[in-house]
Structures are given as C-alpha cells and as structure tokens.
Specification:
- There is one protein chain.
- The protein is an alpha/beta fold.
- The protein is about 35% helix and about 15% strand.
- Helix 10 links the parallel strand 13 (about 315-320) and strand 14 (about 340).
- Strands 4-5-7-10-11-12-13-14 form an eight-stranded parallel barrel, surrounded by seven helices. A three-stranded antiparallel β-sheet has the order 1-2-3, with no helix packed on it. A two-stranded parallel ribbon has the order 8-9.
- The protein has a single domain (about 10-365), classed as Aldolase class I (TIM Barrel).
- It has twelve helices and 14 strands.
Length: about 375
C-alpha cells in the first residue's frame, strides 16, 4: 500500500477564466508552480471546486443551545447563492470542555450530526456546486465554559481562568475526540474537514514554545511540540475518507520573540503533507498579548507563499485582509497560493463572488433567482 505522502490528491486544473488562460498560453510560470485565476475550476481528489474562492471560517455564534439556529443556516444559504466555491464552517468544538464561547457550534456528540447535516443540505440546495468543509477545534486555555486545560498550568494572558495541565492520558483522549468529530462530519455529509491549529487554540498552544513548556514527550523540542497535532492528523485521516480533502489551519507566526515562526511552519507543513493533509490554511497570530502585528492588506499572504514554495506538493490557502477582486486575483496570478479565503467581506456581502466576476470580466453561472439581475 502506498504511503499517505505518495497517495496525496493533486489539485488538478480543469478550467479557467480568461486571465488565467492567457497566462497559461503564454507559458508564464511562477517559481515552478502553476498560477491560477479566481474563477478557474479545480479538484482536490474527487472534490470539484467551481472556483478558488473560499469563505474563511468565522465564528457565527449561531448556536445558543449547541444546535444551529435558522439564522445560522441563513448565513450558509446566502453564501451558497452568492457563488462562493467553498465554505468553511465556524470552529466546531470536539469536546464539551473545548468550547471557546457559549454560542459555538458543537460536534462532540452524535446528537449534533442531524442538525449539522442541515448545514450541508442548505448550502447544496442554494448553491450550484458549493462545497462545505467542517472546521473542528478545541479551545484549550481559551475555553470560557468550563475549567480550561492546556499544555501547562502556567497562567496565560488570553485565558480568563488559570488552566489545568493535561495529563498524558487526557491528551490521548483529545486525539480520539478529534477523530470522532471527523466521523460525525462524514456522516453529516461534509465535503472536507479542517483541523484548527491556529489562533491560540489548543493545538496551537502545544506548537508554540511560548505556551508549551512541558517536559514530557509533548513539550520541549520541535518534534515533541508538533507531536499532538500530528497524532490528531493521523487519527482524523484514519476516520475521514481518503478521497475527500483534509485541511489544517495554522498560525504561521506568533508575531512574538521566541514563539512559533514561519520557518517552523514550513518544516511542519512538510510533515503534514506526508501525513495526508491536502491544504494548509495559512493564518497568523492569536496566541499571545505580546504579539506585535501591523495588519494591512494581504499582510499574511507572504506566509502562504513561503509554504507553497517550500513544500511544492502541498496546497496553500491565503487569508487575511483580502478585500478586493483585484487583490484575490493577484494572489493567485502571482502563484502565492492555490486558494483565496475571505471572511468579513463575505459577511458584509454574500454576493461578493458575483461582483468579483463582473469586475474581473468573468461570467460564472448565476442561480435562477438572480439571473434577471443583469450581472
């Protein structure tokens, strides 16, 4: 049997917009990697995407009673109708104690499978070919619901309460909880799964030397600090169909001295690719109040480009203050990423893809209910 690294699915070009075709025909290349356009189509294994626009995960806060409300479903319905190629859900907790907030979506029990199936159904009914990825997470020290847990008991500025250090057996249980969440996502019909290892949540807490000062096999060296995430990836990959994509979201840097940085991210990306991860969702920050960030348009894109250049057969997704169609198109045309994710712009305007198509001179198909609008 082939290893996961050898059986990775390739993101294959099966169509393109006018700008991308012009570049292809001219023979232009960027760093030896294929460049794309926003409205070029593609596949990750058997999963076909109608464009390379992704709604980045945002915390919808639509589950006051742990179950998605109609208002929450309407967000997915509007996004799908608006023409986005892929939607990533807000972080869904894999454990009762892993909730970051009281209105967070839950996937820690089988009773949530049915309601989550409605998320997928709504998106498919409303959007022609819209895909939905389930983001699964554990808040760790950032949990605001119960006693927080983390790599150590050391007080952490972003935690409301002093965390309790996880024992080795508890770490193993969390790995299983992520796998069980992936199984539920499969049963609910999601098209992909994204493991949230960014923004100061539990898996990020183990990665960073700023928050992880353990002295056992889960702390200290790079190998030990990445151990938990790799164990989670293996467990999820075993519970998730090989023909469907697995995403991992990371913070490429802590933006703080002595913390996690982009060099470690590239090293980790190579390991994740070998374990069968298809797409690295490259964000940054969120761990410490000591972070020093000067945010601006496209400020995180260089991190995605660095990973894409360093690990050629791992797909990357750029995210962070991408506001205009021209910015999104430029990222792909420059070969900085394979996918472009937007969060707040889609919340402000779920029809952003239709407006982007008009700006870029593309003509994606419209749902019948909007066909008379004259886009």
């Amino acid at each position: 049997m082939n290893s996961p690294g050898k059986t990775r699915r390739k993101f294959l070009e099966v169509g393109a917009g006018a700008a991308w075709l012009a570049q292809k025909e001219s023979g232009a290349a960027t760093g030896g990697r294929q460049a794309y356009g926003v409205f070029s189509e593609g596949r990750i294994g058997k999963l076909r995407l109608k464009n390379r626009l992704v709604r980045a995960a945002t915390a919808e806060g639509a589950c006051p009673n742990e179950v998605m409300t109609e208002a929450g479903l309407e967000i997915f319905r509007a996004l799908a109708r608006g023409g986005v190629g892929l939607i990533i859900t807000g972080h869904m907790t894999v454990a009762p104690g892993g909730r970051a907030e009281g209105t967070q979506t839950c996937i820690y029990d089988d009773r949530f499978t049915g309601p989550l199936r409605r998320v997928v159904e709504v998106a498919r009914e409303a959007g022609d070919g819209c895909r939905v990825v389930a983001q699964i997470s554990h808040a760790g020290m950032q949990s605001q619901i119960v006693e927080p847990v983390g790599p150590t008991e050391r007080p952490w500025p972003k935690a409301k309460n002093r965390p309790r250090a996880l024992a080795t057996g508890e770490v193993e249980r969390i790995v299983k909880q992520f796998a069980q969440a992936a199984r539920r996502a499969k049963e609910a019909g999601f098209d992909g799964v994204e493991i949230h290892a960014a923004h100061g949540y539990l898996l990020h807490q183990f990665l960073s030397p700023l928050s992880n000062t353990r002295t056992d096999e889960y702390g200290g060296s790079f190998e030990n600090r990445t151990r938990l995430l790799l164990e989670v990836v293996r467990a999820v990959r075993s519970a998730w169909p090989m023909h469907l994509p697995l995403f991992v979201r990371v913070s490429a840097t802590d933006w703080a001295e002595g913390g996690w940085d982009v060099d470690q991210t590239v090293q980790l990306a190579s390991l994740l690719r070998y374990e069968g991860v298809d797409v690295l969702d490259v964000s940054s920050g969120g761990l410490t109040t000591a972070q020093r960030i000067t945010p601006g348009p496209l400020y995180q894109v260089p991190f995605a480009a660095r990973v894409r250049a360093g690990v050629p057969d791992l797909l990357t997704m750029a995210v962070g203050m991408i506001e205009t169609p021209e910015q999104a198109e430029g990222i792909l045309q420059n070969g900085d990423a394979d996918l472009v994710a937007l969060g707040r712009p889609f919340l402000r305007d779920p029809h952003w893809p239709q407006r982007a198509a008009r700006t870029l001179g593309a003509t994606p198909p419209l749902p019948d209910v909007y066909a008379r609008a004259g886009w």
